[in-house]
Amino acid sequence: MSPTLQLFLIVSAALFCIGLLAALSRRHAIFILIGIEMMLAGANLNFIAFWRFSSEPHQPTGVMIAIFSIAIAAAEAAVGLALVISVYRHYRTTNVDQLDQLKG
Q: Fewer beta carbons within 10 angstroms: which end of the chain, N or C?
């Protein structure tokens, strides 16, 4: 049994939904960032699956988009973690419900 496009799309949708649930239901900023990363991984799986099962998979456009997306996700994780560390140093918590005093 070889994997089909439908199988990859189901796994990608499940990964995206789990990431969305994690990002919306968690209260700690670290778990929200992990949920966003899972959503990006689901989108990357879509890019690779559509590239692999297209009629002309010789040009690696899907792979290039996925690599570009991974680079953006790495930059987002670095900036997000820097913000979380900065907020933790000031407020001593990563609970986003308690961060209602953020003012310029």
A: C
Q: Looking up tokens 């907020």, which residue turns up?
A: 87
Find tokens 């189901």 and name the residue.
10
Q: Which domains does the chain have, with CATH numbers?
A: 7-92 (1.10.287.3510)
User: Do 22 and 34 contact (CB within 8 A), yes or no?
Assistant: yes
Cβ 49 vs Cβ 8: under 8 Å? yes
- The mean pLDDT value of the chain amounts to 87
* Alpha-carbon separation of residue 46 from 2, 12, 88 (angstroms): 17, 6, 35
Taking CA 79 as the corner, what is the angle to CA 73 and CA 80, rounded to the nearest 5 degrees?
Answer: 80
Contact 40/73 with Cβ under 8 angstroms?
Answer: yes
DSSP state of 97: G
